[in-house]
Amino acid sequence: xxxxxxxxxxxxxxxxxxxxxxxxxxxxxxxxxxxxxxxxxxxxxxxxxxxxxxxxxxxxxxxxxxxxxxxxxxxxxxxxxxxxxxxxxxxxxxxxxxxxxxxxxxxxxxxxxxxxxxxxxxxxxxxxxxxxxxxxxxxxxxxxxxxxxxxxxxxxxxxxxxxxxxxxxxxxxxxxxxxxxxxxxxxxxxxxxxxxxxxxxxxxxxxxxxxxxxxxxxxxxxxxxxxxxxxxx
Length: 233
Description:
Layout: E1 2-12, E2 18-29, E3 34-38, H1 45-52, E4 60-65, E5 68-69, H2 75-85, E6 86-89, H3 101-112, H4 117-130, H5 146-158, E7 164-168, H6 176-193, E8 196-200, H7 204-209, E9 212-217, E10 225-230
Parallel strand pairs: 3-8, 3-9, 6-7, 7-8
Antiparallel strand pairs: 1-2, 1-4, 4-5, 9-10
């Protein structure tokens, strides 16, 4: 379970003062849930995802995952916790350009230390086959299309069998057919591992299919906060 309490994320304003990127009093996400995160650009969707997985720390407040308050963990322990517990599919993929598709997936598996050494290469190859890239395992990111890079990113996120799968704008660079393929794959992964699936997106079709939607938007109290939360199904 994910518990967010009294989270604020502020940045220094070059013109003086601070900019509030996110203000969130309370958010609970149960294990196995499918949750959509909606809102216009600049409302804090990516900021929220980065805080949920510990890439970014809030200015104030706490995030607890499975009874571990990740906001209090030292950076090294927080990084390891994320590698073992959370699979993150970045909007811009964040693949290492000097590594092949297989090596990008392997890097995450090795760092997570969750898969036995003798099984790591086999798992990486199986994951790349599953996302339809068995013929691209030795290709570098620059040799892959945007959709192929995204599928490598998904394979990498699956590497350590994460309890939580966080995805930022999964259909932004895809045509209609591939949008459906990627969404089906993410949901298949969620079902197999009973993972929690959190997707930040502008895609209304995805949002309508999620069991719950969190809407980020303007409020009088701060520049970004939850203004609505409802069942989308």
